[in-house]
């Protein structure tokens, strides 16, 4: 090992930024414990473990058309979805507009007017409406959703606390439509991603399903036995999908993590998300790079050059790992002519990604173990993974699957199969509506 490599390794170890700083056994136990607490007592765990009242049916209904609304981020999408005899989803009459409240604050009436406008063009096509509502919301036993808070992009404070499904139908009724037979199923994007796994080609029979999103943020959903859910009254059926809200998992590996959390909004929340998701890995790397400059791992010349480009985002750090000799990339320009800087920076960024992958694997492994499924290698659990951070951040997917293979398959004899279903929120919302 060269001098710069050994110094960088010692630096990463000192600040708990190596994957080896994560004790997987301790982490798996803590994650499972938090899951159990969240299922038994509302508000007592960093994992909310939100019941969704959504069941995973053995078969997706074929040939029936449903209306789908996909409200997420700053876009509102509407379309029709049906499944043919082979289970393939067919999406038609697709339309995309901006979400109400993006450009300016809107009232509740204005908000639901926009939704009604978009559904109205499809109103006679189906009595079932699947509504993927990708904002924080509590789900009710009648499959409605009540917004708790909107992200900063959406300005619609009057909508908070109002059931979105019921208010949509009320607006359609006000316009003269007969909604007596209309039924709406509201769910979030992670739950929809899980359900979309049912649309995966069945070359092998799956024993269970997990929905996983790792993009700007992160979340996980799985199927839990109703007998283990003590936070809601008696529920019909054997099981239902649980929205874990895994990004809020309370875990702080080291001092640099603590310093980074303190620099973010809501420092005490969303610790896992702040260590693995696209919105935060870049800023976290920025902090680690500054610490490496302070301790002489990276040179003063690098410091001067880096000042022109910071703060970096996740794409910038990923680009360096992908093509460390491409001088069109900002971080390559920062290391130009200094072999030690170039090596040290690569090792630092790679270690941050590898640690994020180990944390991601712990999240997924804990979820698999809690589900109780996947013990037969012929019948693995289907993990439908979505999100640009997971797929486009250099090495993140590969490292995650390495740690899952090591700690889940080899050590615990649990088996998973990853799939990637395009348009998962839309397909999952359609499946939920067909299950009403």
Strand content: 15-25%
Largest sheet: 6 strands, mixed
- Enumerate the strands of the largest sheet in spatial order, edge to edge or round the barrel: 1-11-10-9-12-13
Order of helices and strands: HHEEEEHEEEHEHEEEHHHHHHHEHHEH
**Number of DSSP-assigned strands:** 13
Task: Give the mean pLDDT.
Answer: 95
> What is the global morphology?
globular
Low-confidence stretches: none
In DSSP terms, counting alpha (H) and pi (I) runs of 4 or more, how many helices? 15
Relative helix content: 40-55%
From the coordinates shown, what is the CATH architecture of the largest domain?
Answer: 3-Layer(aba) Sandwich
Distance between the termini: 61 Å
CATH class of the largest domain: Alpha Beta
Measured on Cα atoms, how large is the radius of gyration? 23 Å
CATH topology of the largest domain: Hexokinase, domain 1
Helical/strand content category: alpha/beta
> What number of structural domains do the residues give?
2
Q: How would you describe the overall organization of this protein?
A:
41% of the residues lie in helices and 18% in strands. With 436 residues, the chain is an alpha/beta fold. It folds into two domains: 1-52 and 200-421, Hexokinase, domain 1 (3-Layer(aba) Sandwich), CATH 3.40.367; 66-187, ATPase, nucleotide binding domain (Nucleotidyltransferase, domain 5), CATH 3.30.420.40. The strands form three sheets. A six-stranded mixed sheet has the order 1-11-10-9-12-13, sandwiched between helices. Strands 4-3-2-5-8 form a five-stranded mixed sheet, sandwiched between helices. Helix 2 (24-40) packs across helix 12. The longest helix is centred in the C-terminal third of the chain and has 33 residues, at 339-371. The radius of gyration is 23 Å and the shape is globular. It starts with a helix and ends with a helix.
């Amino acid at each position: 090992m060269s001098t710069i490599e050994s110094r960088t390794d010692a630096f990463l170890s000192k600040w708990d930024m190596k994957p080896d700083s994560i004790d997987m056994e301790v982490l798996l136990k803590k994650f499972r414990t938090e899951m159990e607490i969240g299922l038994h007592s509302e508000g007592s765990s960093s994992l909310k473990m939100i019941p969704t009242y959504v069941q995973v049916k053995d078969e997706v209904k074929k040939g029936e058309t449903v209306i789908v609304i996909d409200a997420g981020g700053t876009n509102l999408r509407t379309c029709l979805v049906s499944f043919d005899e082979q289970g393939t989803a067919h999406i038609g009459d697709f339309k995309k507009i901006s979400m109400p409240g993006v450009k300016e604050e809107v009232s509740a009436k204005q908000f639901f007017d926009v939704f009604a406008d978009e559904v109205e063009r499809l109103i006679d096509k189906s009595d079932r409406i699947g509504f993927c509502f990708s904002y924080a919301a509590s789900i009710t036993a009648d499959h409605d959703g009540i917004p708790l808070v909107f992200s900063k992009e959406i300005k619609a404070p009057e909508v908070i606390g109002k059931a979105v499904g019921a208010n949509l139908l009320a607006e359609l009724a006000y316009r003269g439509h007969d909604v007596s037979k209309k039924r709406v199923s509201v769910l979030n994007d992670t739950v929809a991603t899980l359900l979309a796994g049912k649309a995966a080609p069945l070359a092998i029979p799956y024993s269970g399903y997990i929905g996983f999103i790792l993009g700007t943020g992160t979340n996980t959903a799985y199927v839990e036995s109703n007998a283990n859910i003590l936070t809601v009254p008696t529920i019909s059926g054997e099981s239902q999908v649980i929205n874990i809200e895994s990004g809020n998992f309370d875990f702080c590996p080291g001092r640099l993590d603590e310093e980074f959390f303190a620099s973010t909004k809501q420092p005490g929340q969303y610790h896992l998300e702040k260590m693995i998701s696209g919105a935060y890995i870049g800023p976290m790397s920025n902090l680690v790079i500054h610490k490496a400059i302070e301790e002489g791992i990276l040179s003063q010349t690098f410091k001067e050059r880096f000042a022109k480009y910071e703060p970096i985002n996740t794409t910038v750090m990923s680009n360096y790992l992908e093509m460390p000799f491409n001088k069109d990339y900002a971080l390559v320009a920062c290391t130009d002519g200094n072999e030690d800087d170039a090596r040290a920076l690569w090792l630092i960024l790679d270690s941050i990604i590898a640690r994020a992958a180990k944390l991601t694997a712990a999240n997924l492994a804990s979820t698999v173990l809690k589900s109780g499924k996947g013990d037969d290698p012929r019948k693995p659990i289907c993990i439908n993974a979505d999100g640009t951070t997971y797929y486009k951040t250099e090495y993140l997917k590969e490292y995650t699957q390495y740690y899952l293979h090591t700690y889940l398959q080899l050590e615990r004899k649990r088996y998973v199969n990853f799939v990637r279903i395009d348009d998962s929120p839309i397909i999952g919302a359609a499946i939920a509506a067909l299950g009403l």
